[in-house]
Design brief:
The protein has one domain. The protein has 4 helices and no strands. InterPro entries: EmrE-like (IPR037185), Small_drug/metabolite_transptr (IPR000390), Small_multidrug_res (IPR045324).
């Protein structure tokens, strides 16, 4: 169950990272509230997952999921560059996440 909590925490990290773009420096109320709620929920679920998962592994996977999702959504939603080097680095993040899960 801890891995499910960790995965959901990672998805919420993507939500608040992307949400920051929509808050316009926290000047928009609704996006700011949703971003704040995502932050709290993400950290809360990470905390629950840490009850039974190793700290280093869980934190690295949480940030990896967030980084991966945020990079992909940056490309899809905001027209950020999708160069071969950038996509290769995203692939390396995936390899790292899978490796940490297998080693845990």
């Amino acid at each position: 169950m801890a891995w499910i909590y960790l995965f959901l925490a990672g998805l919420l990290e993507i939500g608040w990272a992307v949400g920051l773009k929509y808050t316009h420096g926290f000047t928009r109320l609704v996006p700011s509230l949703l971003t704040g709620a995502s932050m709290i929920a993400s950290l809360g679920l990470l905390g629950i997952a840490l009850r039974s998962l190793p700290l280093g592994t869980a934190y690295a996977i949480w940030t990896g999921i967030g980084t991966l999702g945020t990079a992909i959504l940056g490309i899809l939603l905001f027209g950020e560059a999708a160069t071969a080097a950038r996509l290769a680095c995203i692939g390396l993040i995936v390899c790292g996440i899978v490796g940490l899960k297998l080693a845990a």
